[in-house]
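Most newcomers find our protein records easier to grasp once they have seen one. Each record describes a single protein and holds just a pair of labelled lines. A learned vocabulary of local backbone shapes supplies the integers on the structure line. Nothing more is needed to start thinking about how sequence determines fold. The record below serves as our worked example for the rest of this section.
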Amino acid sequence: MQKTDMYTINKGHSCHAGLRWVATALSTDKTRYVLTRIMIKEDVAVGTDGRRLHILTDPLLTQIEDGLYAVIKQNPHEVLLALDKDAGTFPNYKQVIPDTHSGSFNIGHNSKKGESVGRLIFELGKRNLARVDSVYADDMFSFNPDGMTVHVTDKLNAVTFTSKGRLGALMPLREGS
């Protein structure tokens, strides 16, 4: 892949599905402009809307120039990214990922919509931990058909999900919401 301001990542490329997943976490709020962009730095691509965070790690991302990218198009066949040199500074996403975890559990992917989310909500409730948005949780489970490991800390920290070069984080819901 030649370095340029535009990149087309086709379905056969190892980053294609991962970049589509990262793009689902982008903000649609135009007042949070920088969060409408994917940040690519070295072998990492990050997307967030402030409530969820999707991170893809793939050595082939080093073929793309570091920077913030607008997603021009993303579909099952291709992802088209355009470098946005005027987007501003991407937030320090590493701050929301807990350094340590009080526990972890595995959740397999279930073909029946909602079963994995239901298990997640049950496990978090059983441990008296953070509550998360069920819609965002369902989206989190879309990234790996084989399941994932869920890492938990407490009610105030992000719940993180890991599997095959991907890390996702869901910010806890505030009490009363």
